[in-house]
Amino acid sequence: MGEIQRHKGMTLSLLLEEAALECPQKKAVFCGGASLTYGELNARAAGLALGFQKLGVEAGNRVGIFMGNCLQYLESLFALAKLGAVAVPINTFLTGHELVYILKDSEAKVLVVSNELLERVEGMLDGAETLSHVVRVGDGLPGPIDFEGIVEQAPADSRGRSVDVHDLAFIVYTSGTTGYPKGAMLTHWNVVTNLHAGTGAIPLGVEDRMLVFLPMFHVYTLTACLMAPIHSRAAIVLVPSIRPFSRLLKEIVLKRPTLFMGIPPVYEILVEKRFPGLTLMLNSIRLYFSAAAPLSEETIVRFQKKFGRPLLQGYGLSEASPAICMNRLDEAQRPGSVGRPLEDIEVKLVDEEGRDVSTGEVGELIAKGPNIMKGYLHLPEETAQTLRDGWLYTGDMARADEDGYLYIVDRKKDMIIVHGMNVYPREVELVLAQHPKVKASAVIGKSDGLGERVVAVVQTVDGVDVSSQELKDFCKERLAPFKVPHMILFRDSLPMTPTMKIKKKELREELAAEWEGKPPLQNCAQG
């Protein structure tokens, strides 16, 4: 290995501790009217680590984090890293039932949760048997332990315990093909080596400021938006969310961020939105980056023409911590390409038999490197299917040009990407199957110009009448909003194989023909 070998003993706790020693007075993070220097962030994380210890959190224990973007989220991540405990970031769009599943599966000992989210799930947490404490962030709710109440005065050196680089740092849950989320186990080595490789491709300097508005539970945000600035001694400008957009513009004008990490729907909106000329003149951002889903060539061209700044694409997934390849700032951009593999990451494109495909041909993208996850928690069979002979089988289809630039073509899996978040059809189908009037269903994705929408094709029991709204309401009680079908179509029957599996490919082709204005499907009505 190259540059990465020089950081063989680095962990996430050491990452912050070294930054605090080098530049204790430098601003590390801004959030609204508050801010923390590197020294203050390290001291707060150390004090919180002591508080977690008193709650019984030890090395290897799992702690769920269920909050929106805030300073306490960042403090919690580093406090757990200091203890050698494992952070379990949880999607804030999930329902209480989905949250409890993750808490049980990860065997979380403590849950750190914001007041507004605690109100949503209160009364359901008894189902998480391993949970011994709930720590709330925010004022006003009695009962659970107050976050500020457990932060102690840390020793001057504020150093964490000795943690092995191959210990787990995060368990990141991603939707599973079985209908249940899978916990991708990421070690300190996975994350830190990915940081070094990523910042080698797109250098960050101490004067840079990263604008962070994407949800902090997403692995893209965790690594590229939070840990990368700490690694480079840059600063983080933390915003609760992209809405309202006026707040985002205000932060850009006041805090002067220089890097903007987004997802395709954000850039699709930006190219259409009208901005005052002065706003564009005061734009401090030097570089925009997109990941989580493919970005159209048209959007890139229009965006760069409008803002006069580079917009780069990259590719990765949770199981790779997450980056596998990206475009470089100092290289000419190739339309539609997600760039070349990062340092110390090897990729191949293979056919169904695992043989390399020729240049220009489409094959499944597989990757090998120090950033590849340890495996899926409690899922040895799925781990063995995804990790083979050291290679991560991504399930994504791609082609490469003669210079090694990669172009993502399609997904081998049925996964639907809704605003940068993964939805597996099987998960939605399992919920629909619980409705007494549903006999069978098939869930597919429909492009809407900004990404994809979830579409369910439903066969009812013996032709019983049920409205699409009834089924949507049923799903809303059991699924996160982005997983709820946007459109429900009804059919008397679904195309089946001899082994009684739904022919989804045939169904997609039929629906695509209908959506393109060709003769509509027979026996199919929109609810």
Plain-language structure description:
The protein is of the alpha/beta class. The strands form six sheets. A nine-stranded mixed beta sheet has the order 2-1-11-10-12-13-14-15-16, with helices on both faces. Strands 4-3-5-6-7 form a five-stranded parallel beta sheet. Helix 2 (38-54) packs across helix 3 (71-83). The N and C termini lie far apart (56 Å).
The outline comes out as globular
Strand order of the largest sheet: 2-1-11-10-12-13-14-15-16
Compute the average pLDDT: 89
How many strand segments? 28
CATH-level-4 superfamily name of the largest domain: ANL, N-terminal domain
Give the termini distance in whole angstroms.
56 Å
Which stretches are poorly predicted, pLDDT < 50 over at least 5 residues?
519-527
What's this model, at a glance?
Helix content is 31%, strand content 26%. The protein is of the alpha/beta class and 527 residues long.
Describe the SSE topology:
Blueprint: H1 12-22, E1 27-31, E2 34-37, H2 38-54, E3 62-66, H3 71-83, E4 86-89, H4 96-106, E5 108-114, H5 115-121, E6 133-137, E7 145-146, H6 147-150, E8 168-174, E9 182-187, H7 188-201, E10 209-212, H8 219-232, E11 235-238, H9 245-255, E12 259-262, H10 264-272, H11 277-281, E13 287-290, H12 297-307, E14 311-316, E15 323-326, E16 340-341, E17 346-350, E18 363-368, E19 375-376, H13 380-386, E20 387-388, E21 391-400, E22 406-411, E23 416-418, E24 421-423, H14 425-433, E25 438-447, E26 452-460, H15 468-476, E27 487-491, H16 504-515, E28 524-526
Helix pairs in contact: 1-2, 1-3, 2-3, 7-8, 10-12
